[in-house]
User: Which sequence fits this backbone?
């Protein structure tokens, strides 16, 4: 890496880090530009350890030791700026060490992600980046082997998704699928059963389903408002629900994913 000190927030070398609070702008610009933003030393370290390549890094003087410890390639510029410059460029105070503009890796083929996976999360049309990041964190912590996200699902590599996931989005294999006409036949060909998490009268309680879970299983979770689409429910081999108390009908999507994964990894027969 080579360190460059910049005091002018208008310097064009900092353009990758502008407008980070403008969700619509960054969602379009990051994908089209082949990059994503990693925030904090911990997240950057996990990205680098996963083989992702930094394009440039924006940081303050006090965080340079941690950046140097990453042992980055000599070609990576590290822009060292005063706090006021970093905040002016990013649009918010940066308290966790650094921002890195990372090269966005190509998505793997669906078949490659499915190969050998025993437990898979399928996220359909989630809107909130924080929920996507939380779902990836649950997947990593609770033993999911892969995550599939629909074409309209929020970007797992958007800055907030990555931050909320604490970088676990880099350790769980994932890719996108176009629609259920593409995905459902691939699941069947792999011998993977599909369980849809939904509120429906004929749904099987989660604990009962966990007691006889299929060897290979994909769990589908829908958008924060309407839930799973009719196409998703039609493709499912089973509809599963988490019984609720206290007059509450459901949890948010990330919490639902965490509960479902835990129950499936700890079926009743395996508990003390």
Assistant:
């Amino acid at each position: 890496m080579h360190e460059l000190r910049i005091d002018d927030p208008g310097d064009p070398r900092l353009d990758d880090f502008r407008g980070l609070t403008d969700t619509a702008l960054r969602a379009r610009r990051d994908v089209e530009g082949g990059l994503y933003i990693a925030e904090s030393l911990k997240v950057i370290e996990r990205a680098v350890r996963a083989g992702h390549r930094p394009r440039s890094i924006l940081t303050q003087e006090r965080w340079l030791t941690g950046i140097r410890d990453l042992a980055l390639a000599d070609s990576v510029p590290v822009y060292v700026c005063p706090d006021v410059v970093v905040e002016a460029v990013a649009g918010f105070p940066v308290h966790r060490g650094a921002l890195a503009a990372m090269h966005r890796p190509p998505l793997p083929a669906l078949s490659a992600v499915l190969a050998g996976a025993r437990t898979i999360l399928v996220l359909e049309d989630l809107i909130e980046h924080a929920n996507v990041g939380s779902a990836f964190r649950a997947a990593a912590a609770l033993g999911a082997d892969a995550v599939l996200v629909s074409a309209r699902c929020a970007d797992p590599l958007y800055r907030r998704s990555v931050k909320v996931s604490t970088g676990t989005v880099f350790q769980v294999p994932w890719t996108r699928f176009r629609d259920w006409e593409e995905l459902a036949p691939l699941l069947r060909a792999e011998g993977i059963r599909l369980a849809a998490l939904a509120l429906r009268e004929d749904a099987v309680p989660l604990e009962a389903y966990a007691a006889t879970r299929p060897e290979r299983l994909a769990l589908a979770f829908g958008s924060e408002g309407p839930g799973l689409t009719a196409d998703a429910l039609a493709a499912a081999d089973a509809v599963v629900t988490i019984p609720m108390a206290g007059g509450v009908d459901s949890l948010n999507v990330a919490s639902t994913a965490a509960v479902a994964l835990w129950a499936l990894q700890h079926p009743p027969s395996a508990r003390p």
